[in-house]
Amino acid sequence: MKNILCLACLLFSGSTLAQLALDQQPPIVSLTDKAGGRVDGASWSSAELKGKVHILMYVDPDEVKLNAHVEDALAAESFPGDLVTSVGVINMAASWKPNFAIDLILKRKQKKFPDTIYVRDMQRAFVSGWDLRDHSYHIVVLDREGRLIFEAAGELSATQIGQLIAVIWDRIKD
Fold it and tell me: Can you give the pTM of this predicted structure?
C-alpha cells in the first residue's frame, strides 16, 4: 500500500511540475526546423519573451474564433507598443487543416498585424513544455522579466477579460 501511495505522489508531483506557476518563469521552449518557428521560417524561442509585457495566445486553428471577443477587448485598450506586444502561437499539430492553408492565413495576418509575432508549433512543444491546453485557445501573459502574470484556457468570461486587462495595465505602470 505504501508503494502505491508513493507512486501516486510521484506521478502527481511530476505532472504539476510541468504546469505554469504564477510569478515564475516558464521553461524555455524553442521552435526550430521541423518543430516550427516564425512564419518566415526563422527559429523562435520563448527566451525572447522579455523586455515587454507579452500576451501569448496559443491557438488550435480550429478554435481561432473562440476568443475573438478577447482579441477585440485587448485591441480596444490600445496598450503602448513599446511596453506590450502579442505573440500568436499556432498549434499546427492540433488541426485537421493542411499546413499550407494555415501558413497562407498566417502570412496574411503577419502583413495585416506586423507588430504581432506569429509562430508555428508543429509538434505541440507548448503542450508538453508549458502544459498548455491542446485543441483549445490558451492565453498566457508574461511580465517584462518573463514571469507568468496571467493564464487562462478555453473561452474567457467577461470577468476573466477584466482580470487580463487589469493585470496588463498594472504591470506596465510599474
Answer: 0.85
